[in-house]
Amino acid sequence: MKDSIRHKELADFLQTRRKRLSPQEAGLRSDSTRRRTPGLRREEVAALSGISLTWYTSLEQGREIRVSEQVLESLSRTLKLDKDERSYLFALAGQWLPGDPESDAGSNEAISPATKLILDELHRFPAYIVGRRWNIVAWNRIAAEVFGYSDDMNDRERNVVWRMFMMEEYRQLFVDWENIAKGQLAQFRSFYGKFADDPWYNNLVEQLLKSSKEFEMWWPQHEVIHSPEGRKELHHPRLGVLSMDYSSFSLAEDHSMIMTVFTPQAHTGTMEKLDRFFPARV
């Protein structure tokens, strides 16, 4: 969406939400006979949100103004926005939506039954889901067998970056570990930038800097990529070499959760190996 269109959409959205909210709903006492139009006045929204009337008026006029996360949170509370409306407000303002302020980020990353069913039905293809902290929150049976996931993994073992740099058995799965690890780190870095104020992220980075010489060497380089698709070659201890493409995409139910699906590359024998080891269900 172009900036000019985005600012116009933001202006229209703020106006509609202001006009639908009565003074009583906003906690104000008002004589309705003195109001020519329903809803709150601009000056009331500005005062309740702790911002100047001039600045708020500029927002409703669609002017190109950079809106901070704090102001967006104030407007969300003043206008009584629900979860979806709050998310839309942040998107229109060009801001990454922060975690729910009433809960610990990443503490409640459950997937829906429908998503779990989709994951399980991909029984021929390894697939897993990571949350906003890159912890594995769900996987299917074939992913467990290929990548070694299990229910008894601790918090660190569930983190895909920690696994890549700190778990020797996991490192040995990848034929070209160095390039794959560098690529994953660059992807993680782009994600990290959105949550750099999260103490959990900073703690993870500090631990990896102390524990992994490769991480310590590559992290200061600030390499950043966003690659939802790619190829990986694995050397499985029982299946041998597996050549697979992967595709990653956000879940509609929570855009900070990412599902990654691995599909065998054609003419490599990978599909036949997986089918022999994990027979197709009837």
Total number of domains: 2
The backbone outline, from C-alpha atoms, is: elongated
Beta-strand percentage range = 5-15%
At CATH level 2, the architecture of the largest domain is 2-Layer Sandwich
> CATH fold name of the largest domain, please?
Beta-Lactamase
The strand order across the widest sheet is 2-1-5-4-3
Number of helices: 13
Judged by helices, strands and strand pairing, the structural class is alpha+beta
Distance between the termini: 46 Å
Overall pLDDT metric: 87
**Which sequence of SSEs, written as H and E, runs from N to C?**
HHHHHHEEHHHHHHEEEH
- Poorly predicted spans: 100-107
Q: Write down the CATH class of the largest domain.
A: Alpha Beta
Task: Give a short account of the largest sheet.
Answer: 5 strands, antiparallel
Supply Rg. Answer: 24 Å
User: What is the chains' assembly state?
Assistant: single chain
- Percent of residues in helical segments? 40-55%
Number of β-strand runs: 5
